[in-house]
Design a protein that fits this description.
Layout: H1 13-26, H2 30-53, H3 60-63, H4 67-70, H5 74-80
Length: about 90
């Protein structure tokens, strides 16, 4: 009779232990880190589209060429920021 072991037991015990410790220490902060990443993305989108929204932006020269890349995410961003309709006439996202 052979000893059938589950696939997770193919790793050494210390690797499973380290993976468990990582999960134990990182799990409580996942939501906080996701919220911080979303806040950073929101600020970056504001920085990138600030000139188009009528806000002076000293970095507009550097962010202008990034606008077409982030335009597909613009609709979810402006709805998350509380704008029901798109503030631009030349963008038909709504």
């Amino acid at each position: 009779m052979e000893n059938a072991q589950p696939p997770e037991s193919t790793q050494p015990w210390w690797q499973r232990f380290v993976a468990g410790l990582n999960e134990f220490y990182h799990a409580p902060y996942r939501q906080t880190m996701a919220r911080a990443a979303r806040d950073e993305e929101d600020f970056f989108m504001l920085l990138m589209f600030a000139e188009s929204l009528g806000i002076d932006n000293p970095a507009s020269f550097y962010t202008l060429e990034l606008q077409p890349l982030f335009l597909e995410n613009f609709h979810e961003w402006h709805t998350r920021m509380g704008m029901d309709r798109c503030p631009f006439d030349h963008v038909g996202c709504c």
